[in-house]
Write a structure and sequence with these properties.
A hairpin with a 2-residue loop joins strand 3 and strand 4. The chain is an alpha/beta fold and 982 residues long. Helices cover 33% and strands 22% of the residues.
């Protein structure tokens, strides 16, 4: 919506202030600036506000707005006077306005930095979090316009508005003056305000997902009149799953006298349904979808699953059609799964929703599955079904134009029915947010991700998201930093998901191996070593071993305090006639499950070779005693993560924790050698073994790889329990304000949006403000200048070229070291110019020699998709060729810095490899933290490269540095809540 010329004589309409937001109840609304065209909307909105709310706004009876009021509230300069409105269906439901004031409270202009703010929310929409969302956005607008404080006058009886200000998390002051509460809010974001904002975001987005997957009623728009077809298939699956709510079939082609189809009410439109409809599954051609969306929006449908194709996957025209679909749905407060989606499944007993095209409905379980591909979704569902795994929820989002994996991470974070989250992603629309949400979710339950389209360099058809410039290896490292279990294939995702869903997390990497095949045991042993685990020598039970032998051996291994997990290997028994004995799979499964149930809580995986019925029997989760509903409700909470592994022997009340206690696999810290009874067990309840699923694998490598991922994830969980921090001592040696002023001066008043690279002296000066000293160099345009420079710096010196094509390329002869005198320097200068070119081309410099050490590289870059990334590696071609570089997201903590230098494969070189002296790792970690702090404090610093950094046994020396600046982009992860627009 654009203003008239008189609307904004000084500033154009700020369309970047427009935003779609999710409200507390999961519905959406649009926030935008108010314009002169909104006069009628404003009057209509005001007429629907109660007299009480009007009184709270104006401190007096104010039944209607005068023409002067309407003009004032719709004419803004977008600097000193700003008004925002919240709209649903194109109509106002709330407004907020600020007016800049001076110290006396009178209207003012800049440099006055205070403004008076006032809100008005329609009564029907109060309690939806509208005012809280508006406060976030109007505060961001005010900061952009140089306003630092809000002042508000609120009547003492207006408790709702006082609570909005009080709970926002901003630094504030309150006083009581002239019968009203005077509030002053400092608009600088605080840790508390950011935490409040993100908590509200989580609740709202989780609720928006819940509205889609736990509806009370579903209408299938496009239900075919004849069997078959997309809509009819979805209807059939809804009925087959036993959906607990109301179901309707909708098709404009139904005959006027047709009342039912497949036993459910049939209607020609949503408007013909007299009862509320929560969810609509849209299965009509793309050109008919807008009509269906309008029908849904006007009749209060809460969300859409759009199965229809013909959108962004079809090119530019389809991409615009997809954007219009999202705009249309959000204007009515609806969110969308799709378009081009495969559907959703919710196996909760209270819902039993299968609004998908899945040919096989998975059993109920503890795994949540999100996929952006229908084909991959089918494959995953089929694989999980064959292996007896159960799902809590399944979502195939197609082009994921609106609802994404981020939204489901918000939902699964607190979902009591989900213990493990599996995601197949082909693109990540908001990587910063994904990393933040994944880290928070992974702290309570595993998150396993397969990333498709890793090497294509572009997003898949239908996905309009920023394209990252960082390599896939960096993406993987950043995911692991956030606790995400990154695997390469959907098979590995299923393998890991089964183990994590049904087995406790291991306390360490010590693996016991036992079985009736020596060869299979050795293969498992080798696989453990390859994955970085610490296997014990395999225990061969011989081919004559019976199921009882397996049970005894497994019980003994689980009770061993030097064992953290067990891999059981098994081959078929061969009878006297040379044929495999039948039925041994079920018998062996019962033996293994009994041993696992009565031993300490340690993960068990089974590797088997063609043992009929074993995998199916192991996958069946049963108990030796039934668990009544009352007992489930009184289950104790999960044990503290710092406790030793809980025993697998538990009373019936411990079989399933209540919803609030489900937080994924527990993380043991020390092995438990013997079974122990829980302190929460009722003394009069006998212990009953709980027999859970044991994952079975057809190959040792697959079982061990899944187990290795569990070991690494458990270690991350233990470390994440005590987060790192930025050392406070850095604050005393950093000149943040001086650096900011220098950056502003270097960029100038009209900076080039492409940015600029700093000169050597400029870069050194800026780095120096963060305590980073670069060893000085002097230009050497000729041999005499080189000798003069060396005399000034002192021998020994290094002579090196700075030409871009030769920089840091010692292998090409562009660097000469340890030149101890003038003769050596002149000789080296002549050799350099004879070999590589004229001095004007080489741009040689002289630098004093640094103490001997290990050459390393420290870099920080701003990626448009991933954000600021800190990188570390050894200098030289081998590290570059092998990709031996470690990465962490900025801001980095002390723990991140320590892990960064230890996570490269060549790390032993830094810590005394082959008898060499260890380098000063503390100095290196401090340098990493300083670079991290620089790019985090100043988003205009888009690139820093320190190369080489020579790390000695005491201290380090930065020999080369380059810095690039560019105008900063808005940090979407720190701004007010808003839905992405792709």
């Amino acid at each position: 919506m654009q203003p008239t010329p008189e609307q904004s004589p000084h500033h154009a309409y700020p369309d970047h202030w427009e935003a779609d937001v999710v409200l507390r109840d999961g519905g959406t609304a649009r926030i935008r600036p108010i314009t002169t065209d909104d006069a009628e909307r404003l009057v209509s909105f005001y007429e629907q506000v109660s007299d009480e709310s009007k009184y709270y706004r104006f401190f007096a009876p104010y039944p209607r707005l005068s023409a002067k009021d309407v003009h004032r509230f719709t004419h803004h300069d977008y600097v000193d006077r700003v008004g925002l409105a919240v709209t649903v269906g194109g109509e106002f439901i709330a407004t907020v306005r600020y007016d800049r004031i001076d110290a006396t409270g009178r209207p003012a202009s800049a440099p006055a930095d205070e403004a008076e703010v006032a809100f008005l929310v329609q009564d029907a929409h109060q309690g939806r979090g509208v005012a809280s969302a508006l406060l976030e956005h109007i505060a961001a607008v005010a900061r952009e316009r140089g306003i630092r404080r809000f002042a508000a006058e609120v009547l003492p009886a207006n408790n709702k508005m006082i609570k909005v200000f009080r709970d926002a998390g901003y630094t504030q002051q309150r006083s009581f003056e002239d019968g009203s509460v005077h509030l002053t809010l400092d608009l600088e974001p605080t840790a508390e305000s950011l935490a409040v904002q993100r908590a509200r975001e989580q609740r709202a987005e989780a609720r928006s997902v819940q509205r889609l997957i736990a509806p009370g009623s579903v209408a299938v728009i496009g239900t075919g009149r004849n069997p078959g077809g997309v809509g009819r298939t979805v209807l059939r699956n809804l009925l087959a799953a036993g959906f607990t709510g109301r179901t309707y079939a909708v098709n404009s082609a139904f005959a006027a006298d047709q009342d039912t189809i497949d036993g459910v009410p049939a209607h020609r439109s949503i408007g013909g349904i007299s009862e509320p409809v929560d969810l609509a599954v849209v299965a009509v051609p793309a050109d008919r979808v807008p009509e269906a969306v309008t029908d849904c929006g006007e009749h209060g449908v809460q969300g859409l699953v759009v199965l229809s194709a013909g959108y962004a996957e079809w090119g530019a025209e389809g991409r615009e059609r997809q954007r219009e679909l999202v705009r249309q749905a959000r204007s009515y407060g609806m969110r969308i799964i799709g378009p081009n989606a495969f559907g959703v499944i919710n196996n909760s007993d209270a819902v039993r929703l299968n609004a998908s095209l899945a040919p096989e409905s998975p059993a109920p379980g503890r795994i949540g599955l999100f996929t952006q591909s229908g084909a991959i979704g089918i494959a995953l569902l089929s694989g999980l079904y064959r292996r007896g795994a159960g799902l809590s929820t399944f979502i195939s989002a197609g082009n994921r134009a609106d609802i994404s994996g981020n939204d489901f991470l918000q939902y699964w974070y607190e979902d009591p029915d989900t213990d493990v989250a599996l995601l197949y992603l082909e693109s990540i629309g908001n990587p910063r947010k994904f990393t933040r949400l994944a880290r928070r979710t992974a702290a309570t339950k595993p998150v396993v991700v397969v990333k498709g389209a890793r090497h294509s360099g572009s997003t898949p058809p239908g996905h309009a998201v920023p394209v990252s410039r960082i390599p896939d290896a960096t993406v993987s490292a950043l995911m692991r930093q956030a606790g995400v279990i990154r695997v390469d294939t959907v098979t590995e995702m299923v393998d890991a998901g089964l183990l994590l869903a049904d087995q406790p997390l291991p306390a360490g990497p010590r693996i016991a191996i036992l079985g009736n095949s020596e060869s299979l045991g050795l293969l498992t042993y080798d696989a453990c070593l390859a994955e970085g685990l610490r296997p014990r020598p395999p225990r061969d039970l011989t081919t004559a071993a019976t199921p009882q032998d397996f049970r005894d051996a497994l019980a003994e291994a689980l009770a061993d305090g030097n064992c953290d997990a067990v891999v059981v290997t098994a081959i078929p028994w061969v009878g006297e006639n040379g044929e495999a004995e039948s039925g041994e799979g079920e018998v062996l499964a019962a033996a293994l499950r009994t041993a696992a149930a009565t031993g300490p809580a340690k993960p068990v995986a089974v590797v088997h070779v063609e043992i009929g019925g074993l995998a199916e029997a192991l996958a069946a989760a049963t108990s030796t005693a039934a668990v009544p509903p009352v007992a489930r409700a009184s289950a104790p909470a999960a044990p503290d993560a710092s406790a030793a592994p809980a025993p697998r022997t538990a009373p019936p009340t411990a079989q399933a924790a209540p919803p609030a206690a489900r937080t994924g696999p527990s993380v043991p810290t020390t092995p438990s050698p013997t079974p122990q009874r829980s302190d929460t067990d009722p003394v009069d309840t006998p212990a009953v073994p709980v027999l859970g699923r044991i994952p079975a694998y057809p190959a040792a490598e697959r079982a061990v790889r899944a187990l290795a991922e569990a070991v690494k994830y458990a270690q991350w969980r233990r470390q994440a329990a005590v987060p790192g921090k930025v050392p406070e001592f850095l604050d005393d040696t950093i000149d943040e304000a001086g650096a900011a002023a220098r950056i502003d001066a270097l960029l100038g008043s009209d900076p080039d949006p492409r940015g600029r690279s700093l000169g050597h002296d400029e870069a050194c000066e800026l780095l120096g403000r963060y305590g980073i000293t670069v060893r000085p160099t002097l230009p050497a345009p000729d041999p005499d200048a080189a000798v003069a420079a060396a005399a000034r710096l002192g021998y020994p010196v290094a002579l090196k070229t700075t030409a871009p094509h030769l920089r840091h390329r010692a292998d090409l002869g562009g660097v000469r070291l340890d030149l101890a005198n003038e003769a050596a320097l002149r000789r080296a200068y002549g050799e350099l110019t004879d070999l590589l070119g004229k001095p004007t081309e080489l741009q040689p410099v002289v630098q004093s020699m640094a103490p001997r050490g290990v050459d390393t590289v420290v870099r920080a870059t701003i990626d448009p998709a991933a954000g600021a990334v800190l990188s570390f590696g050894l200098a030289g071609a081998p590290s570059e060729l092998l990709g031996d570089t470690a990465h962490r997201l900025v801001p980095a903590t002390d723990r991140d810095a320590a892990e960064l230098i230890r996570s490269i494969r060549a790390a032993p070189v830094l810590f005394g490899w082959r008898g060499s002296a260890p380098v000063d790792s503390a100095a290196l970690e401090e340098l990493l933290l300083r670079v991290s702090r620089l790019v985090d404090d100043h988003p205009e610093v888009v690139s820093v490269a320190l190369e080489p950094v020579v790390v000695a046994t005491q201290g380090l020396t930065v020999l080369g540095a380059s810095v690039r600046l560019a105008p900063s982009l808005a940090r979407t992860d720190l701004g007010p809540r808003r839905l992405p627009n792709y």
